[in-house]
Specification:
Chain A has 454 residues and is an alpha/beta fold. Chain A has 15 helices and 13 strands. The radius of gyration of chain B is 13 Å and the shape is globular. Chain B has a four-stranded antiparallel beta sheet, sandwiched between helices. Classes of the chains: A alpha/beta (454), B alpha+beta (92). Chain B: Belongs to the UPF0237 family.
């Protein structure tokens, strides 16, 4: 069947003026066969395997960009959580493994490599603890390595010892990268119910249930959704808004699925999942906050924002799930502050607070993401922010995450600047009352009961 | 192998010779034009061509580059994309 002029024109317009892009192609590589008890050997095996598997990743992605005219913004790699691969090596040798990951990422030309991770929702192995304690050094001495730690699940509860520890790790990581506004902490995520096939950094890792090597794709398109919604009349009701988002999401997802399948085919790997997320960029017109505002909120963060986000998130999934049979990852709307021009504006205007962002995370895909807070925030407060967010994920059987940056030397109202996709952000106010005694208790918050739902 | 379709879009300020020059370049590359539609959208000249690049004498990327350069000379923006993306987005 031929194409109508309008159809062709629509696709071209989506790419050229509404910023439709494939946010990321992430190659997941299993490193389980690289484990051992000699750090040098593990590092060598890891480097060899990654550079071999991902040798053509960037080349193929660039070919596809050129042939289909859709930009692929990020080419990345995720690997088996390193705590599993290197459970048996000494604490001060973890940097060797991390440097090897960094070097391999540089060699194949990807901008981030995820999987410097540990899953400790129920307890720590010695290797887990060694890895976590090495995170500040690793994130300050490597350039492309990203780290995540899963500290809670719906089935296991919340490891509060890990929550307490992560508060310290985040602070230390930020402090060690103080020349760059604490950018190390922007490469570190704390998760509840971490997905094993998520292609988005900093939380990407290649889960133990995954195959040898897969291609996962993350699509993005807040600009396209915003443009579609802005064509609706002011009188359009929520049913029409949802319908419009669904249709747009379907088209975005189909584009991602095509690119993902072709990439997998050309790289001789299998196609994993499509993560149908609306992920903003700091560019004007590519913002989740602006979509919410287009539904009639004067500023993102006002009362009504959570409802608007719930509608958006659900409609994106409904449209996307019809378009691709293998949907996974985080799938939904991301609400990072520093990466979204509209969110930054809402914080500056005083409309958006951490508390409201926390409420919004109950209905969207990730969590408290890319939020800068004062550098002198006590670690217990950071841990308590993590605990709250983990509780939301645990009780609601969803993924939640915290990526927060205690910007060294900065106060509320100051700015941090990370550059590129990570953007810039105003330092936000945190509640000054101390949760110290609560965090110091340690132990584990038991898993919730899931009958008697409320 | 049957046809391998690509879609060429030309967007910019109207002037004499746009269709002529694009068609000429395509003919030189042994590319068959299957369909042309052209309109003025909001005062901007917009042309969409569906072409068959199966017998193209040039690699896709070189062709893309040549079209881009031609566009710069003519003061318009010329893009070429393989057809599959349109099929994926608009056809079930």
């Amino acid at each position: 069947m031929g194409f109508a002029f309008e159809e062709i024109e629509e696709t071209i317009r989506m790419v050229q003026s509404e910023k439709l892009d494939i946010r990321t192609i992430t190659m997941g590589i299993s490193l389980r066969d690289c484990s051992g008890d000699n750090a040098n050997k593990i590092a060598e095996k890891i480097y060899d395997k990654i550079t071999r598997k991902a040798e053509n990743l960037v080349k193929v992605a660039e070919e596809l960009e050129s042939e289909f005219g859709i930009p692929i913004v990020n080419k990345r790699i995720s690997v088996t959580p390193i705590a599993i691969v290197a459970d048996n090596i000494k604490k001060d040798e973890f940097i060797k493994i991390a440097s090897s990951l960094d070097k391999a990422a540089k060699n194949v030309g990807v901008n981030f490599i995820g999987g410097y991770s540990a899953l400790v929702h129920k307890g720590f192995t010695d290797g887990d603890l060694n890895l976590i304690n090495s995170i500040p050094q690793v994130l300050s001495e490597t350039e492309r390595v990203c780290s995540s730690v899963n500290v809670a699940t719906t089935k296991a509860g919340i490891n509060m010892d890990a929550v307490a520890l992560m508060g310290k790790i985040i602070k230390d990581t930020a402090y060690r990268t103080k020349e760059n506004d604490g950018i190390g902490a922007a490469k570190l995520v704390v998760f509840c119910n971490a997905p094993e096939d998520n292609p988005f950094m900093a939380g990407a890792f290649h889960g133990v249930g995954e195959g040898e090597c897969v291609i996962n794709v993350g699509v993005s398109g807040p600009g396209v959704v915003l443009a579609a919604l802005s064509k609706l009349p002011k009188s359009a009701d929520f049913g029409q808004i949802s319908e419009t988002i669904k249709k747009t999401s379907f088209k975005i997802t189909r584009a991602g699925e095509l690119i993902g399948r072709l990439a997998a085919q050309r790289l001789n790997t299998s196609f994993g999942i499509l993560d149908l997320s609306l992920a903003p960029t700091p560019e004007i017109g590519d913002s989740i906050a602006n979509i919410l505002e287009s539904m009639g909120l004067s500023k993102c963060g006002s009362h009504g924002t959570t409802a608007a986000l719930a509608l958006l998130n659900d409609a994106v999934k409904k449209g996307g799930v019809m378009a691709s049979s293998y949907v996974g990852g985080l799938s939904g709307a991301f609400i990072p502050v520093s990466e979204d021009a509209g969110m930054i504006e809402a914080v500056e205007a005083g409309a958006l607070s951490i508390e409201k962002l926390e409420a919004m995370t109950c209905v969207c895909s990730v969590g408290l993401d890319m939020i800068a807070i004062p550098g002198d925030t006590p670690y217990e407060t950071i841990s308590a922010i993590i605990a709250d967010e983990m509780a939301i994920g645990m009780i609601n059987k969803k993924t939640t995450a915290v990526r927060i940056i205690p910007a060294p030397g900065k106060k509320e109202g100051d700015y941090v600047e990370f550059g590129g996709l990570l953007g810039h952000a105003p330092v936000m106010k945190v509640n000054s009352f101390s949760p110290k005694d609560f965090i110091e208790r340690g132990g584990r918050i038991p898993a919730p009961l899931h009958s008697l739902n409320n | 192998m049957s046809e391998q379709k690509a879609i060429i879009s030309v967007i910019g300020v109207d002037r004499v010779g746009i269709i002529y020059n694009v068609s000429k370049l395509l003919a030189e590359n042994n590319i068959n034009i299957l369909d042309i539609s052209q309109t003025i959208l909001k005062d901007i000249f917009t042309m969409i061509m569906i072409v068959d690049i199966k017998n193209s004498t040039n690699d896709f990327n070189i062709l893309k580059e040549e079209l881009k350069n031609l566009g710069e000379n003519l003061g318009v923006k010329i893009d070429i994309q393989k057809e599959d993306i349109f099929r994926a987005m608009h056809r079930l």
